[in-house]
Design brief:
With 200 residues, the protein is of the alpha+beta class. It has four helices and six strands. It has two domains: 47 residues; 136 residues, Mago nashi protein (2-Layer Sandwich).
């Protein structure tokens, strides 16, 4: 006697629905996992902001201020750097484009002093930047004036850098007033001597 196919079809439909829900669930879980990885990778790729790098007071961190003069003959080219870390302050003067060291002065530092210093830099808008027509620091302000570069360092390797100059047509990527930033760095060096003029 024919009883129809209903009783056989119902379990089949239920099985198909269960399998479909399981597959859909696996797909959703997979998407969540992979999208989370992408987000995490994106955060790592973006890295810390300039503000984060400036205010980071770990022992491995430091900030550096570089001043260089006009682009002249190697024998006459001069530059200097002031580097401040939670444990040390250094003032190094160089000759030539290969950075032959003329003189080095070192002073101890402490974390509290470094904290005050980096917050003073932040209050002086060191983290303010603007787009430059050409962001390349090489050769800028070549015939007159002074070029300045600010860098944040991790284990003595620069991870952020911005720059400006005293030339009107090469303002660079640093929006802060270089004179204020320069004064803050110079005040960290008791025996600072200007190399180019009364200020620099």
């Amino acid at each position: 006697m024919y009883r129809g196919s209903g009783p056989r079809i119902v379990p089949l439909i239920v099985a198909v629905l269960v399998i479909a829900f399981v597959i859909a669930g696996l797909v959703m879980v997979g998407r969540m996992i992979f999208s989370g990885d992408k987000q995490s990778n994106g955060d790592k790729k973006n890295g810390p902001t300039l503000v984060d790098s400036v205010l980071n007071q770990d022992e491995s961190r430091s900030v550096r201020w570089t001043i260089r003069g006009p682009i002249v003959a190697n024998e006459k080219f001069k530059s200097y750097q002031i580097t401040v870390s939670p444990s040390e302050r250094t003032f190094v003067t160089y000759s030539g484009y290969l950075d032959d060291v003329i003189d080095t002065k070192k002073y101890s530092n402490n974390k509290q002093a470094y904290e005050q210093f980096v917050y003073a830099l932040n209050n002086a808008n060191i983290t303010a930047t603007h787009a430059a027509k050409d962001a390349d620091f090489r050769g800028v302000c070549a015939t007159e004036g002074i070029a300045y570069m600010f860098e944040t360092l991790n284990n003595r390797s620069a991870d952020q850098s911005i720059w400006s100059t005293s030339c009107r047509d090469s303002k660079g990527t640093m929006a802060a007033d270089p004179l204020k930033i320069h004064a803050l760095f110079v005040n960290q060096i008791p025996e600072f001597k200007s190399q180019f003029n009364e200020i620099y």
